[in-house]
Amino acid sequence: MSKNILNKDEQEIFGIIKEYLQKKPIVKIIELVAFIDNRLRFNPNYTKYKIEIIVKSLIKKKIILVGTKLTKHDILRIQIRKDIYNYILKKPGININEIKNEFNLGSNQVLWHLRALNDFEFIRMVKIGNQKALFGFNFDKTHTNAVFHLRNEKIQEIIKLLITSNVPVKPTKISKKLNIHYNTVKKYLIILLKFDLISKVNGNKKKGYNLNKTVYSNLEKFI
Predict the structure, then answer these.
(1) Which entry of 118, 191, 214, 223 is 20 to 30 Å from 50 by CA?
(2) Where do the domains of the chain lie?
(3) Looking at residues 34-39, what average pLDDT do you find?
(4) What is the C-alpha to C-alpha distance for residues 89 and 85, in angstroms, rounded to an integer?
(5) How confident is the model at residue 160 (pLDDT cuts 50, 70, 90)?
(6) Cβ-Cβ contacts under 8 Å for 108 (sequence gap 6 or more)
(7) Element (H, E) at 199
(8) Is 72:120 a contact under the CB 8 Å cutoff?
(9) Domain 148-220, CATH
């Protein structure tokens, strides 16, 4: 069962919480529980303890959060935020600057929308190096780093060169063909080796590289 599907008790408590949130954000769970308990004081099905358990369950499911008047149901009602969310689903591994450029938004606006999406578990923000990569919350975690690096333009150029070659390609040839500094080529080859996207082949005293097409084809759909 999806964590976002509420049972009958959760639905009833959530309905009362939405009334509470029209007036103020959730600051203390104990205050929210007291409000709900007062509303249900004539209902024998709910004790204060049971109400607290249900409230904590809704928080765990990220339906509500302490410190905000928003609920999970509110998050995608803002069209630009919904568009950002769908864009991340379409292009997993993009960074914050790409969102800014695509939607012509300032840093504060983008971060506000991303924090809401992240806090309510619509997306995940993954720190890779000095950047934050953006993924749908349910995106396969085993692929996050590889997909992020595959979005690099120079890495894509190297891969395209390897795809078109019938023989292992040496780093010096890659550097010359693509006009990329040799040390940069080596850096990206190390990354591709780390994710088994390429394999190293020894020959004529120098190492060449082949693309592991099966591995790449499994990730290419995300790029």
Answers:
(1) 118
(2) 8-73, 78-139, 148-220
(3) 97
(4) 6
(5) very high
(6) none
(7) strand 198-203
(8) yes
(9) 1.10.10.10
